Amino acid sequence: MPKITFIDSDGTARTVEGEIGSTVMETAIRNSIPGIEAECGGACACATCHVYVDQAWREQTGEPSPMEEDMLDFGYDVRPTSRLSCQIKVSEALDGLVVRTPEKQA
């Protein structure tokens, strides 16, 4: 199972195993990762699962879709590496993925 490291705004890192085919958001919720609220349940209808993808992983996670970009407009402290974790599918290629959670969600 691919390992994903979530780093919160205080710098605390938590590494958990993700299930292939699930999303990074589902992995966070399943493992009680603080900083991921996921109010819409992964429907890309809010920005409460906002994360910053580590620069080394940007290519593997891809670019946000136009709909995701629209939702990111509602995010807190959006940056070039911002993604909604509900839109990133867990795969073997993402083993070792590192994401950071913002100080707060929108």
Structure description:
The protein has three helices and five strands; from the N terminus they run E-E-H-E-H-H-E-E. It is of the alpha+beta class and 106 residues long. The protein has one domain (3-100): Ubiquitin-like (UB roll). The longest helix has 7 residues, at 24-30.
Q: Share of helix among residues?
A: 10-25%
Q: Judging by the overall fold, what is the CATH architecture?
A: Roll
The largest beta-sheet arranges its strands as: 2-1-5-3-4
Rounded mean pLDDT is 97
Q: Could you say what the CATH topology is called? A: Ubiquitin-like (UB roll)
Shape: globular
Radius of gyration: 12 Å
CATH superfamily: Beta-grasp domain
- Let me know the largest β-sheet: 5 strands, mixed
Q: Number of DSSP strands?
A: 5
Alpha-beta classification:
alpha+beta
Instruction: Give the strand content.
Output: 15-25%
**Alpha plus pi helix count:** 3
What's the number of domains? 1
CATH class: Alpha Beta
Order of helices and strands: EEHEHHEE
> Distance between the terminal alpha carbons, to the nearest Å?
31 Å
Low-confidence stretches: none
